[in-house]
Amino acid sequence: MLTMKKKETIILWDPQLRRIRNNLRSVLISFAVDKGNEISSNYQWKKSEISEILIRSICKCPSCRRNNQNMTFNPGLKEWYCTECYKLIQDDYKRRKVLRDKGEDYGDFREEFYKTFV
Length: 118
Ligand SMILES: [Zn+2]
Hints:
- With 118 residues, this protein is mainly α.
- The chain has one domain.
- It has four helices and three strands; from the N terminus they run βααββαα.
- It has helices spanning 15-38, 44-56, 83-101, 111-115, and strands at residues 8-10, 71-74, 79-82.
- Strands 1-2-3 form a three-stranded antiparallel β-sheet.
- The longest helix is centred in the N-terminal third of the chain and has 24 residues, at 15-38.
- It starts with 7 loop residues before the first strand and ends with a helix.
- The mean pLDDT is 93.
- The structure holds zinc ion.
- The site of zinc ion has 8 residues, from β3 and α3.
- Residues 61, 63-64, 66, 81-82, 84-85 line the site of zinc ion (ZN).
């Protein structure tokens, strides 16, 4: 298995390449879903394993679930997020840190999670 250790963004600008990438992702997702459906409910762990592989793959953003976006790898979580979600979470982290430093309410803040997006 390919092991990545640093943040990396893969961006395709060419619309034709994007279409090919999106189609390949759809095929892989459908294949994973079909395989999951074929497995008897007695093997729930096997279904969970397939879901886990899909979540950690570059095929689907674990936050918004879209599969047609450019993606950024989060090495801390070992997951790919679409570039939009990645930026939103980064901005949210910065905003909450400012609020916290001012002593204001910064909401439900899982810093261990947020820190991986820096
Ligand atoms: Zn997303």
